[in-house]
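Reply to dn_fold:

You asked what the input looked like. This is it:
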Amino acid sequence: MKFYFNTTAMSVVTLAMLGSDAILGMANAQEQTTAEVEAAQTQEDKLARLGVVTVSARRRDESINDAPVAITALDGDQLGDYAIDDFSDIATQVPTMVVGRGTSGTGASIFLRGVGSTSLSAGFDQSVSINFDGVPMSRGREIILSQYDIERVEVLKGPQALFFGKNTTGGLINVVTKGPTDIFEAGGRVGYGFEADKIYGEGFVSGPLTDTLSARLAVRAVDSEGAFENNASLVSTDPLGRTIRRTSEKRGGEEDLSGRFTLDWTPSEFANLELKVGASSHEDRGASELVERVCAAGRTTPATANGVPPSPNSGCTIDGVSDYVTIPQEVTINYPFARDGEPYADFNSEYGILTGSFSFDTFDIDTITGYYQFEQQDLNNVGGESYPATFTQRADFSQASQEIRFTTKWDGPFNLMFGGFYSDEDFLFYSSAYIFPVPVDPVQNTARTFVRNSEFEATTTSLFAEARYDLTDTLELSGGARWSRVERDSLQFSAAPHSNFAGAFPDGVRLEDEFSDENVSPQVTLRWKPSVNTTWYVSYKEGFKSGGYNLSQSLTPAASVAAGEYDSETAQGFEVGLRTIAFDQQLRFNATAYDFEYDNLQVQKFDPVTIGQISDNAGSLTTKGVEVDFDFAPNAVEGLSIRGALAYNDASYSDYVGQCFGGQTIAEGCTLLPNNGAFTSRDYDGLTPPKSPEWSGRFGGSYQFPIGSLTAQLSSDLTYTSEYNYTDTLRPDSIQDAFTKIDAAFSITGPTDQWTVSLIGRNLTDELVASSANDIPFTGGAGTGTTSGTRSDMSAQVANPREVYLELSYRF
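and this is what came back:
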C-alpha cells in the first residue's frame, strides 16, 4: 500500500507548522515577564475572547487544542447566529462537506473529503454517519430532523473506528444536545423567513427539581410554505386524460414539531445518570419537490418520455423553478401509501438515551443505553407535469444499542480505555412505482408498475481498547483497536403488479441473503505537547463499514442474490496535525494533512433503462490533502473576531471498472465488459469521485460594539466551493460550477442580555447548488456501449436557496 502527500499541500502545512514555533516563542516570552497569579487570570480572559472549544472526539471532554483529531466544532451559539437548524446548512460551515436529501433509498447523500454514500439503496449505511448524544444513527434519513437546543456539533473527518465503531469510514457528525442546568433558566426564540414564508419557534425550560435532580424541556415548531417556485398549471391532464393538479404555488414547504425532555440525577459525587427522550414529527410534500430537471448535454428543451412531449412549463436548467403536480386519483387504487395522489412525506421518530457515569478511585465507568425508531411514508412525483411517474415508500426502522467503557485513572504514565458495543436493528422497506401511464388493470385492480418489499435484521458486536503511555511530560503514545462482527439477514420479495408488467416484474420473486463479516481496525497516535498551548500529532487509522445486500435491487426474472450483494468497505491511512494558540492568546490555529486509501468503496448507481438501483464496490479510492482553520481575536480591537478555513482535497479512483452512464458511447469511453453486443462498463481509474471539490473554504468575522446601553453585533461569512461532479456515474454534463455563498447577520441585544433582535441572511448570493442527481427514466439512456447512445435528462436535488430571517430571542 502506498501513501504520499501532494507536495504543494505539504509545503503549505509545513510552513504553517514551522511558523507556529516562532509564534509560540513570542507568546512564552511575554508570559515569563508577568507574575504567576496575574498571568493566569490574564490568559484566562484572553482565551475567553477566542472562545473555549470543548470536544468529545475521543469520548471524553477535552479542549480542541488538545485533541489529536481532524475536527470542525460548531457550538450552539454559532449555529444560532445564522438560524441553522438542519444538516444541509451545517454542511455550509464545513469545507469539503456536501449534504443533500435524497428521494429514495436511505433518503440522504452525505459526503466528506470525497467519501460518502448516495441515497439510492435502502440497505446502505452511510460512510459519514451521525452520532446523536452517544447513539449511532447511520440510516441517512436523520438529516430531516430539526436541530435545536444544541450544545455543539462536531464534524470528525476520516476514519473514526476506535471511538465510534459503527460505519465511520468517511467521518462522523457528532451532535451533543444541551443538558439541564444547576440554576433555573428559560428562554426561546421566534422567527420569520421572508422567502419561504417560514414561521418557527423554539423554547426551553431548565433547572433543578431537587438537590440531586434537574431537568430540561426543549421544543421546536416550524411551518413553511417553501422558497422554490412551482410553475405547473393549476389543473391539467396526464397522457391518458386524467386530471392532475398543481400541488401548491411554492415548493419546499414543511411542518415540523419536535420535543426533548432530559432528566439529570446526581445521587453522589461519584455517580450521574442522564435520561434523554425525544420525538419528532415532520411533514412535507416529498423530497422530489426539491428536484429540478437538467437536460442532457446539447439539448435546450426537455426530452420526451416514452413518446410523451414535455410540459411547456418544464425547464432545462436549475433556476429555482419546476413543475410539481399530483398524480391522478385513479392511480391510487390498490396503491399502498398513495393516499389521494397528493405528494407527501411523513417522518416520525422517537428515541430514548440513558447515559451513566460512575467514578471510582482508580477507574471510571461510562454506559450509554439507546433506543431509536423512525417510520417514514411518502409519495413522490418524479416525472413532472407532462409525465407524472411516481413511487411510494414506507421505511420502518428500530435500533436498540448498548455501550460500556472503562477508563483507568492510575497515577503512573500508563492508562487504559476499553469496553464493548452491541446493537440490534430491524428495518422494513416497502416501495411501489407507477412508471408507465396505463389504465387500471381490471385483473389486478392496480396501475402500479412494480412492487418491492424488503427487510433486514442486523446485529453489530464490537470490543475496543486503547492504551495511553506518557513517554515524557510532553510526549504521549496511544494505540488501540476495535474488533467488530456484523451479521445481517436480508429478504426481498415482489407482489403482483399491473398485468402488462408481469413479465418484467413478476409476482413471487423472493431473494434471501445472509451476510456476516469481522474486522479489526487499529489506530496509533503520537502526540507531542511542547507547551500547554500547542499540540502536534501524527496518527495511523483504519476504518470499517459492513457490506450487505441491496434492498433496492429490481426484482426482475434475472435478479439474483449474488447481484445484490456488496462487500465491506475499509479505510487506512495517515494524518498529521498541529493545534496551537499563539500571538499572546489572540490566535487559534489548526492545520491537518492526511492521506487515506479506501478499499472496496461501496458505490451505487441508477439504471434508467431497467429502473434499477445497482450496488457495487470500487476497487480503491485515495484522498489526500490539507486543511487549515483559524480564529483571531485581536487585543487592539475590542469585540472583533475573524475566522477562516481552507481545505485542499485530492481524491481519485484506482483499480475500478464500473457501470457506464446511461447513453455513454464507445467514443466517450464505454469500452469494457461487452454483453449482448454492447459494452456495459468503463475504466474509472484516475477519475475524481462525485461530490469531491478540490478547494473549499470559509472566511468571515464578527464585530460586537455598544450602542448606548445596548450591544450590537455584525457578522458575515463567505463560503467558497470549487466545481464537482454530482452524479455517481460521473456524467460530463453534470458539473456543479464553483460557487460562493455569503451569509450575514445583524443583531441588537438588550442591556442585561435578556432579549436579542436579529436580521439574518443566508446564501445572499442565491446560489442554487446541486448536491446529487439521477437519470430520468425513458428520456434517454438507450444505446449505452454502442456508437450512438442517447443520454437521459437528469433530476437534480437542489440545496436551500436564499433566505432572510427576522428573529427575536428572549431569556428569563
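Residues 607 and 662 are 7 Å apart (CA to CA).
Hope that clears it up.
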